[in-house]
Amino acid sequence: MPDAGLYFIGRIRTPWTHRSDCPKNSHQAHEAQAVCNVEIDHAFQPALAGLEGTTHLWLLYFMDRAPRNLVVQVPRRYGEGRGTFALRSPARPNPIAMSAVRVLDIAEGRLTVIGVDCLDGTPLLDIKPYFASTDCHPDAVVGWHRARTEEAAEEAPPAPG
Amino acid sequence: MPDAGLYFIGRIRTPWTHRSDCPKNSHQAHEAQAVCNVEIDHAFQPALAGLEGTTHLWLLYFMDRAPRNLVVQVPRRYGEGRGTFALRSPARPNPIAMSAVRVLDIAEGRLTVIGVDCLDGTPLLDIKPYFASTDCHPDAVVGWHRARTEEAAEEAPPAPG
């Protein structure tokens, strides 16, 4: 039995209808640059009031096709098992994904944004303003990711000349 | 009827047992500087593997005492009604809060962190690594907040001399 319930408040519209089409490892490559739409259900549209002049939002959405029973998993590209809480994989006990998106437009209960990586039709859970003062940590390090990046740099062939 | 279910995977231990004690508007004042603990339920402790060397994490938690039926609300300090999606108030259709925390220690299924602002015992939903490449947007602007800050600056007395 679940401990609490979620209500879907809208849907995210993206160009991707199969998981293999979705941007991968967008934390590395800024691959999620497509313009997407977010449709807010009618009852929740008044909650968009006051967003004028806001440039970035958090979208929280529900990865409803992801398994929820993996505590350790092997990422597609890395081949080494890691704990779910060390990964941004959609597979997790509560498959809530979050993306900081850039706002292009808000009109008629619809957001136009850049920065999501999910399947078309993904259920929306929440929208929050992005506060740089608390949400932005430029010096943050992900231990395994830094180690991997350094390793790749060492393996790269020397620059020509 | 809810559209999906959540499972609580641990609890956040903080010094605050009443809502009035919790840090307020922590996006403005960096008020949430207390050292807090996060207790992970035994079944989910293996999911912490691979976090060595990681400096910042996202905690997602469930504000289980917040009302869920407010689409417009008047923040305590500001006195002007705004849409829920323009605020970080815990009162929202899905009362999922998120905080980027600094990691001090991870040991025996327990995280020691700085950066949460919730009541003692708040249910934990998820832990994710913080990736500066996608999570950090230093130029993000919250429209109403900037307007308010500029207004306050105009109202401030001129600097002496």
Give a structural overview:
2 copies of one chain form a homodimer. Chain A has 3 helices and 9 strands; from the N terminus they run E-E-H-E-E-E-E-E-E-E-H-H. Chain A is α+β, with helices and mostly antiparallel strands and 161 residues long. Chain A has helices at residues 26-29, 132-135, 143-155, and strands at residues 4-6, 10-13, 35-40, 56-62, 72-73, 82-83, 96-107, 110-114, 122-129. In chain A, a hairpin with a 2-residue loop joins strand 7 and strand 8. The radius of gyration of chain A is 18 Å and the shape is globular. The interface between A and B is large, with 75 and 75 residues.
Blueprint (SSEs and pairs):
The structure is a homodimer of 161-residue chains.
Chain A: E1 4-6, E2 10-13, H1 26-29, E3 35-40, E4 56-62, E5 72-73, E6 82-83, E7 96-107, E8 110-114, E9 122-129, H2 132-135, H3 143-155
* Quaternary organization: homodimer
Extended strand count of chain A: 9
Extract low-pLDDT stretches of chain A. none
- Round the mean pLDDT of chain A to the nearest integer and report it: 89
Quick recap of the structure?
Two copies of one chain form a homodimer. The first copy, chain A, is an alpha+beta fold and 161 residues long.
